[in-house]
């Protein structure tokens, strides 16, 4: 009895194996079935394309992601069926998929990427706008500026891939233009802050490049008046304070490299309006030299000047603190070099 049942099961298994279709399901699809899959994908893609155009999506919102995923799924199924089809009309179906479906999925991906990038840009722009409004310059602003700059460049690449001039321009106006506007408000501050930070790194080295440091100080100091015009008073004061500290450090470091007579006293004939008298230490006596200023030295002004004495050129930073114009400014000798 057991032997008969075993034989019958074997026969049934053989019969069931012979009835199974050869290959995968898509290989068995007819032209009509494949055409239906292509038509379905075309219909979904046709609905999707309107959602990625500002002409119909005025608010530039993300497309219906359910529709987007359905379109991708329908495309993948149709593409599989077309690839397996053995029919002379296969090329026509492939052309329809490429022209009417695949292209809209590709454009939708570019549109979604641009919007997602734009939202990152918008968040950074809002953060920068808040820092400017609250006058918070010394914490994070320079890092935020550079992060925003990177995202603007990245957004430009993503925007280039978006289909349709009007849609690209709308995304540009919504995200990139406001970001550029906020960024431009603090561009000078960040430029000077970056220079001062570079100077700090240079001063931390075992061997300091004196002339690089002087260049850093001159460049940043020359931009201070612009900072004073564009930003609250404490912003320029914050930068200037760091610059004065750096000048003081540099003067001590570079002193061993001085090639000419040093000086330790300044006075004036007219409250530093036009004149400055320098008392040079000649080793046993002081020699006074009169120099003329380009313009009056104002309170809290820092100015880097150059003058010559017996064949040497002096680079000095002046910083007037006292409100009494007759009181000599603080000064830091940055370099004394023989004139070649």
From TrEMBL:
Keywords: Signal. It holds the Pfam family SbsC_C. The keyword Plastid does not apply. Transmembrane segments: none annotated. Residues 49-180 form the SbsC C-terminal domain. It comes from the Bacteria. Residues 1-27 form the signal peptide. This is SbsC C-terminal domain-containing protein.
